Amino acid sequence: MRLRSLVVTAVLALPLLVTACGSSESDGGLGADDDVAAGSVFPVTVEHKYGETVVRAEPKRVVSVGVTEQDVLLQLGVVPVGVTEWYGEQPDATWPWAHDLLDGAHPEVLHTDNGLEFEKIAALDPDLIVGTNAGLTKKDYQLLSAIAPTITSDEGATDYFSPWQDQVLQIARGLGREADGQQVVDDLEADYAAVAAEHPEWADLTATFSQGAPYDGILYVYPPGLSTDFLTQLGFTMTTGFEDYAPAGSQAEISAENVGLIDADVVVFATEDEKGFDALQDFGTISSLPAVDDNRAVYTDGTLAGAVYFDTPLSRAYVLEKLTPMLEQAAAGEAPRAFPS
Questions:
Q1: DSSP structure class, residue 219
Q2: Which UniProt keywords apply (predicted)?
């Protein structure tokens, strides 16, 4: 797949109720009984890029029209009645780090190949629609708002993948659970800070984050500040010098003859399968890149790559767990030069 910011996204009307998932600390969820009962705070008003939305009562049937919002809803104890497929064709359009929080439910899976499926969304009879990571136009918002109160992203946010903290808080506001949303943000940031504190040597290292295989003769690499804070929050300094190859707000497009620009103390390649790993090794001078040759390159599997791209609290927690030992190996020059088995 080329760009994770390119959204590719059938619905049977299944009368699933939104439920509050009682959950333990181990599953990352927050039950509806935590803190003050959500129903006591309504009505709530949520400001966003297209104005403001009033949610008059605790939502019972929530539809996610964005590509990652299901993670946040589930972590806040809400099982959506509809979710949107992004990529990966995961069961219920929900990846492994979040799927257990469905608690056996099977929300309808919406697709956006031909735009938003307004009729199918309406058939789900939602009382709240969440689209903070959906690229909604003002017309989309107006049409969705005619179906149910609709929450979109903050003023000034990008169409997709605005800061995960902002998205968490925006969704939490619509659920009447802003304090819980802030707790999710604070806890995850503390977890990253703790790992960074355990590895002070990482603060002296540079890092590059790249997609894991070339596409049409181009390797897509992330310039500093674009989906790279999973590394900077651990202390790494992102490699610079290839920003001139990056269209505004997008990945740098690195051709085979320019791959030397991405070398760093540690390079993270979001490889997704063996075929992609092999194509990467054969691309330009990747195989002789110092970071690659000295076993300072990390290669992910498809699930870990998906977790990095998803960029939600649940996926970032998964990244922290799985990637930390791999970064330790790479920093020591001991990372396996192979696709993870």
A1: E
A2: Signal, Transport
Name residues whose C-beta falls within 8 Å of residue 320's C-beta, 6 or more positions apart in sequence.
Answer: 191, 192, 195, 230
289 token code pair: 């890149």
Distance CA 138, CA 141 (A): 5
Give 244's contacts (C-beta < 8 A, 6+ positions apart): none
d(CA 85, CA 167): 18
Specify the 3-state DSSP secondary structure of 169.
helix
Strands (E), 295-334: 297-299
User: How confident is the model over 154-160, as a mean pLDDT?
Assistant: 89
186: which 2 tokens? 């604070």
pLDDT in tens, 282-333: 999 999 999 999 999 999 999 999 999 999 999 999 999 999 999 999 999 9
Q: What would the two tokens of residue 232 be?
A: 């900077």
* 74-83 residues labelled b (16+ CB within 10 A) or e (exposed): bbbbbbbbbb
The per-residue DSSP string of 262-288 comes to G--SEEEEE--SHHHHHHHHTSTTGGG
Average pLDDT, the chain: 90
Q: Which DSSP category does 21 fall into?
A: -
Q: How many helices (H) and strands (E) does the chain have?
A: 11, 13
Segments in 128-239 forming alpha helices (H): 138-145, 164-174, 178-198, 229-232
Asked whether 147 and 117 are in contact (CB, 8 A), the reply is: no
User: Residues 69, 155, 174, 182: is their CA dihedral positive or negative?
Assistant: positive
**Quick check: pTM over 0.70?**
yes
